[in-house]
């Protein structure tokens, strides 16, 4: 699924983050626990250097608890990375962020200095909700916030921490079509660009292999067929997603499936695993190397041509 993004927003955010990053002591990166890989912003890794990062796997109430555990151990293998999982009951949990900040930035303790922490993350992962919970008051607007770049906000917390809201908007990754599908599945992308037949088929294929029992139970099927379209056909029929002529309406069932996934009716579901991340990263490396080689070959060709003239 193709993602649309505005280069202007991307460059502005990059400039602003580059400018403030050196002053930060710790980064709080908010991820969606259902897609801890696809909800990463590539710039965080690029611009953080060796600064400590607390990765929050947010909306854990909608994710697969076992997978959240696996993701946390996987992510913590990286130097300077600690993880926390949060659900809707953040108020009783956010003290863990404060404790981790002090643990990860120990040299500031005892001095009259604030720990500067920047919250980063792509839209809709729950940054504003987290900021409000940490601040114990409403300082950031939550929910369907328009895609505009606001001025950067600083919030002073009681425990010697100065919180910085992300300057500008952080875009999701664009390099791989999987990211687009998974982000659309969790509603991180606006609905107008979603083709539900296509998305439904992508998600069906994954769920059939990762959560077959849940699908059979929810859609009252005794067994799962081979292909995702066959599943959509069978489940769609059971749920009355039919058009005139008794044809299954795949887009209608796709939309129903995605809505049930998003609302948690199918239970906690995680749409990607650390193994998938490793595999996709390796594939991306190969694709990048290939693109580089092609570029170099083209340049060589061009140089040869100009030498001849
Ligand atoms: N289920 C669930 N929803 C959450 C959680 N945290 C935030 N949300 C919801 O996610 C939506 C986006 O949150 P917001 O804080 O505005 O995200 P932001 O764009 O990153 O600032 C809102 O509707 C929140 O109520 C959570 O832990 N679980
Ligand atoms: Mg926000």
From TrEMBL:
GO annotations of cellular component type: cytoplasm
GO molecular function: GTP binding; GTPase activity
Cellular location(s): Cytoplasm
Major localization listed first in the record, in broad terms: cytoplasm
Keyword Heme tagged: no
GO term, biological process aspect, one: translation
Binding site for GTP: 58-61, 124-129, 168
InterPro entries: G_CP_dom, GTP-bd, GTP-bd_ortho_bundle_sf, GTP-bd_ribosome_bgen, GTPase_MTG1, P-loop_NTPase
Signal peptide: none
Coiled-coil parts of chain: 279-309
UniProt similarity note: Belongs to the TRAFAC class YlqF/YawG GTPase family. MTG1 subfamily.
Name under which the protein is recorded: Ribosome biogenesis GTPase A
Taxonomic lineage: Bacteria, Pseudomonadati, Pseudomonadota, Gammaproteobacteria, Alteromonadales
């Amino acid at each position: 699924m193709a993602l649309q993004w505005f280069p202007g927003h991307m460059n502005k955010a990059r400039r602003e983050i580059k400018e403030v990053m050196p002053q930060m002591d710790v980064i709080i990166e908010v991820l969606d626990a259902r897609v801890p890989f696809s909800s990463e912003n590539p710039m965080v890794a690029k611009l953080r250097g060796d600064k400590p990062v607390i990765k929050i796997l947010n909306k854990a109430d909608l994710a697969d608890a076992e997978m959240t555990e696996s993701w946390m151990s996987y992510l913590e293998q990286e130097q300077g990375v600690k993880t926390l999982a949060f659900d809707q009951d953040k108020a009783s949990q956010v003290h863990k962020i404060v404790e981790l900040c002090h643990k990860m930035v120990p040299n500031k303790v005892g001095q009259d200095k604030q720990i500067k922490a920047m919250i980063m993350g792509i839209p809709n992962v729950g940054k504003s909700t987290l900021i409000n919970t940490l601040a114990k008051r409403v300082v950031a607007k939550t929910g369907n916030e328009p895609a505009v770049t606001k001025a950067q906000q600083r919030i002073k917390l009681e425990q010697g921490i100065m919180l910085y809201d992300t300057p500008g908007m952080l875009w999701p990754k664009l390099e791989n079509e999987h990211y687009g599908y998974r982000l659309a599945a969790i509603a991180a992308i606006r609905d107008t660009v979603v083709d539900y037949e296509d998305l439904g088929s992508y998600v069906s294929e994954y769920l059939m292999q990762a959560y077959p029992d849940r699908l059979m139970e929810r859609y009252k099927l005794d067994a799962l067929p081979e292909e995702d379209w066959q599943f959509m056909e069978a489940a769609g029929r059971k749920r009355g997603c039919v058009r005139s002529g008794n044809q299954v309406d795949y887009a209608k069932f796709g939309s129903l499936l995605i809505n049930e996934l998003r609302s948690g009716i199918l239970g906690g579901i995680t749409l990607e695993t650390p193994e998938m991340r490793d595999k996709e990263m390796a594939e991306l490396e190969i694709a990048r190397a290939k693109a580089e080689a092609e570029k170099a070959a083209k340049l060589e060709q061009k140089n040869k041509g100009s030498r001849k003239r």
